[in-house]
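Researcher: Sequence of UDP-glucuronate 4-epimerase follows. Predict its structure.
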Amino acid sequence: MSKQMSHLDNISSTSGKFKMEKSAYSHNRPRWHSSIAKLSFWSFIFLVVILIFFFRSPPSNPLPQDPSRRSLRNYNWGGPAWEKQVRSSARVRSGNGISVLVTGAAGFVGTHVSAALKRRGDGVLGLDSFNDYYDPSLKRARQALLERTGVFIVEGDINDSVLLKKLFEVVPFTHVMHLAAQAGVRYAMENPGSYVHSNIAGLVSLLEVCKSANPQPAIVWASSSSVYGLNSKVPFSERDRTDQPASLYAATKKAGEEIAHTYNHIYGLSLTGLRFFTVYGPWGRPDMAYFFFTRDILKGKSIPIFEGANHGTVARDFTYIDDIVKGCLAALDTAEKSTGSGGKKRGPAQLRVYNLGNTSPVPVTELVNILERLLKVKAKRNIMKLPRNGDVQFTHANISLAQRELGYKPTTDLQTGLKKFVRWYLGYYSGGKTAAG
Ligand SMILES: O=C(O)[C@H]1O[C@H](OP(=O)(O)OP(=O)(O)OC[C@H]2O[C@@H](n3ccc(=O)[nH]c3=O)[C@H](O)[C@@H]2O)[C@H](O)[C@@H](O)[C@H]1O
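Model: Prediction complete. Tokens:
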């Protein structure tokens, strides 16, 4: 009761104060005049400051009123020096080389593919948004690595059609290696919009520009083993059903395959989708199990190891990055030209999908055994039921199609590949650096 009283007291004292000010106003006109003058003066100064700020800020590059750019971060690109860098990076340096735009070039697979193309004399231009899905400093380190080999990475979003058109104006790319994507199966429950933005809208934005380019490039792009979803027939073959995705990530990759079909059908774009199976290796992604298991084992933190119903084995067809790179290069080399021009189809064009796996699934528990041996540290295992967050229990690639048509032949087993990863990891994160993610 006494509390209530004091509350009411407060209100009354405030209104009393208000009355006092009001009376001061009515009896003191000259003071009122000076307040208005002061207010006008400061409003004027405020306006001037705002106007100066507005006119001095650099023009956003390019047109901000373009609806396709509304959701885009402002990247700095353009100008003669920038165009020179673009041209030089994309210049072919070997007799029968190709000129490739690599999207997602600061990503794990993108970095390795870009470096391999450059090494053999192809022209390579990178494009990457450097988003913070995982530690951007790792992406910057990969960028520095590529710069040393002569690959320039343009900073920008694949949804930015103005930028994409500009790139095709500057360089008549013969090929696009499209690896920019929102990856990760489990993160799709946290941020579904990012999957739609990158894997669907971004893909369409890229294909729109490719179909109008003259010449149209041939496109090789990253699909995923996750498109097999709840398919229980193993090993997974390209002929198997892919209409039961278990995650939004898988659904967007499957949608990508259908979108590819459409652009091939209507515009004569040559399109090859590669279904990657759990790619791992040096410079890898910190959101993937092998990577953060390594970090957490070294830190003495417990690691969650998933198991299926009735203690069923969860396993992956882990595929080493160098094998994947060979598959990507073979897909580029065997890609036929697109048949359209100026946005019009002139004849049927190539449309392909390949599994790129290792053909030997390994249980996640065995992955941990290998890491323990390599790191010489015992893992704190926290065995838990496979959460319902998009993971499937088992993947296993049938690679006979890729073997026949691309000459794809993986040669690195998990033990050998992880040894290379651990060596890189320890080197990279020594000197006080910590893995993010
Ligand atoms: O082939 C693909 O298309 C995809 O491969 C990759 O997905 P996944 O195969 O799910 O890899 P990854 O997360 O490393 O989990 C590996 C294993 O560890 C298990 N796992 C995972 C996390 C955990 O905390 N515990 C655990 O046991 C987990 O159940 C799984 O069995 C890419 O991330 C994805 O972008 C996509 O490219």
